[in-house]
Design a protein that fits this description.
Oligomer: single chain
Distance between the termini: 10 Å
Structural class: alpha/beta
Mean pLDDT: 95
Number of helices: 20
Number of strands: 24
Bound molecules: 5-amino-5-deoxy-1-O-phosphono-D-mannitol
Strand order of the largest sheet: 3-2-4-1-10-9-11-14
Largest sheet: 8 strands, antiparallel
């Protein structure tokens, strides 16, 4: 949430900053702003409500010169989206500017104290408090910008990634982080700062991931220096990015979401690559094989996640209980962290997060670690906070996911969780060789099955026209596909703003059935599995009440096509991994309905991709 970019070097900063903001726009798009120090040493700040394109239009006739600058794209927390609340925020003397991602919890206390010293505020944001505090410390203590920033950070409580510039020291950018991500790109005589690596990869692949409580001092023509907020020198650990610019572009698709749906053939291939023996008889996950005792002795597994990742977690729990026979619970990270949970030293906590930056999931794993649990990460973004905070884990390796609606990350998460369940089962001897080989070989065939399933696209596009203006949808599924129903409903509501609810199919008659009428269609995920007959009864119950049914069925099913209004046929696949295939038509249905409604599927209202605030 919120994206920040910074630059200092030999090029004009503005173009780099704005290009970077476009890359980070998925993190928030309520407003955007830039600040540059021009060659005469003047700090120019421009900000505008709305998307980055609106900022660019606003800047057209402005002085945008300068080789040092910072920029921001906002997802509003404190104060409505407006020009005045947009970042960068600045000091009263107009010399210091700051961009910030995170939330300052004690901002009001600090604000009141500063106001008593005559300080005036123009915005409702928590961020303005930080820059005014820096200014106050600097002028009262007559200290350097660095010392003032460090002292201010020792006074604030909360989460932050910040970048600060001061027209009195135009050759320096100060950046710092605590619980919000910040990456520094090291170029030749130039340095980049960003919330993730995507604005940096065009210029350099050498990056430093700042750790919590670290402050980077980026001085023109000098090596990067990093200290802690306690003023201890930190090591600068330069890593090499493995990301290509083409992964950050739409590649001919009209939207990132559609590109990411269609990429799943390849992303699942990358996800399983090197992890399943060629003949399908063994699973190789170093996160499991390097820590056998943790899994053999695990009394329980707790899965923590949010949103789509939580849905993947529900499927993961079933897979783990089925193949590894370890009792597994799934918790919303936001609930878990405040529930005073019982965590035991023999617990394994699995944190699932595409971004690896979700604030609640990060806090949940910190709590679990403090209480002695072994923490396993299932993340997509390499080097992300959750990936680094966990003891070990498995990357899903599906490449950058830019559309706000998670698609390829979900299928990657379920695929990794299936491999994880099999790997633990293999280690514990709770899964037979035949069973493991059957599921592992099906995992190997997923890319081909996904390609086949994607052929449903034209049919789903046509079907979507019938349902564009519906106001409510029900999604039903059972067993492994109950979470698919939740995920299908989430996809639809977040990008089309149509109210949708997911339910275990049998629960429908305990309440939701009252909603069913001609106006409320039901999507039923009904592949050929152990519960197929039961789902058929549930479909009959919907039909008996005049509801229309869109059913996702296994090719060859002759019963459901006779009763449902529309059927979408998916290829046969073992039930344990059927949610990967069932996800594809659900994603396409949500996409096409949203497009037909004229919605911005990549940047739906009120949402941001990476939820780095509570
Ligand atoms: O990055 P994470 O996987 O931790 O994100 C969790 C949720 O914020 C995310 O899945 C969200 O629900 C998506 N917008 C769903 O499409």
């Amino acid at each position: 949430m919120c994206g920040i970019v910074g630059y200092i070097g030999h090029r004009e900063a503005y173009d780099i900053l704005v290009k970077g903001l476009h890359r980070l726009e998925y993190r928030g798009y309520d407003s955007a702003g830039v600040a540059m120090i021009n060659p005469e040493g003047k700090l120019n700040i421009y900000k505008h409500t709305g998307k980055v394109a609106e900022l660019e239009a606003f800047c057209q006739s402005k002085d945008i010169t300068g080789t040092v600058g910072i920029a921001h794209t906002r997802w509003a927390t404190h104060g409505e989206p407006s020009d005045v609340n947009a970042h960068p925020h600045y000091s009263t003397n107009g010399k210091i500017a700051i961009v910030h991602n995170g939330t300052i919890e004690n901002y009001n206390v600090l604000k009141q104290a500063l106001m008593q010293h005559g300080c005036e505020f123009v915005s409702q944001t928590d961020t303005e408090v930080v820059v005014k505090l820096i200014e106050y410390i600097q002028s009262n203590n007559n200290c350097t910008l660095l010392d003032a920033v460090r002292e201010a950070l020792n006074q604030v409580i909360g989460a932050y990634a910040i970048a600060v510039i001061d027209s009195d020291c135009p050759d320096t950018v100060i950046a710092a982080r605590k619980s919000s991500p910040l990456v520094i790109g090291i170029g030749d005589d130039e340095t980049f700062i960003a919330s993730d690596a995507s604005p940096i990869i065009d210029y350099t692949n050498r990056v430093v991931y700042l750790r919590d409580n670290e402050i980077a001092i980026i001085t023109r023509d000098e090596p990067l220096k990093v200290i802690t907020t306690d003023n201890e020198e930190s090591t600068v650990d330069i890593q090499t990015l493995r990301m290509s610019v083409s992964q950050l572009e739409k590649g001919g698709y009209p939207h990132f979401m559609l590109k990411e749906i269609f990429e799943q053939t390849n992303t699942i291939f990358d996800c399983i690559r090197g992890r399943i023996a060629a003949d399908g008889t063994a699973i190789k996950l170093s996160g499991v094989s390097d820590h056998p005792d943790r899994f053999i002795n695990a009394g329980r597994i707790l899965i923590v996640a949010c949103g789509t990742s939580w849905h993947a977690g529900l499927i993961g729990a079933r897979l783990i209980e089925n193949f590894a026979r370890i009792p597994t619970r799934v918790e919303y990270a936001s609930e878990f962290r405040y529930a005073n949970p019982v965590i035991r030293p023999d617990d394994v906590v699995i944190a699932i997060s595409q971004s690896g930056e979700t604030a609640d999931t990060l806090a949940a794993i910190k709590l679990a670690k403090e209480q002695g649990a072994f923490v396993y990460g299932v993340c997509n973004v390499v080097g992300s906070s959750i990936a680094r905070e966990t003891h070990t884990g498995t990357y899903i390796h599906v490449g950058p996911e830019i559309g706000v609606a998670s698609t390829k990350a979900f299928t990657g998460q379920v695929t990794v969780l299936a491999m994880l369940a099999l790997a633990i089962g293999q280690l514990k001897g709770t899964v037979s060789k035949e069973q493991l080989t059957e599921v592992a070989r099906s995992l190997q065939s997923l890319p081909a099955l996904i390609t086949e399933t994607l052929k449903l696209n034209p049919q789903i596009e046509k079907l979507s026209a019938t349902y564009t203006y519906v106001r409510n949808f029900l999604y039903l599924g059972r067993g492994y596909n109950y979470p698919s129903a939740l995920e299908g409903a989430l996809k639809l509501k977040e990008i089309s703003y149509i109210h949708a609810e997911g339910y275990p199919a049998a629960e429908m008659k305990h309440g939701p059935i009252a909603l069913i009428d001609k106006e409320m269609p039901t999507v039923v995920i009904a592949p050929d599995d152990d519960l197929h007959e039961k789902v058929i009864s549930n479909i009959q119950q919907v039909k008996a009440r005049g509801g229309s049914v869109i059913a996702i069925v296994t090719k060859g099913d002759t019963t459901i096509p006779a009763i449902a209004d529309h059927v979408l046929e998916i290829p046969p696949v073992p039930e344990a991994i059927s949610p990967v295939i069932a996800a594809i038509p659900l994603q396409l249905l949500a996409y096409h309905i949203a497009i037909m409604k004229g919605c911005n599927v990549d940047m739906p209202r009120n949402l941001a991709k990476s939820v780095t605030v509570e």
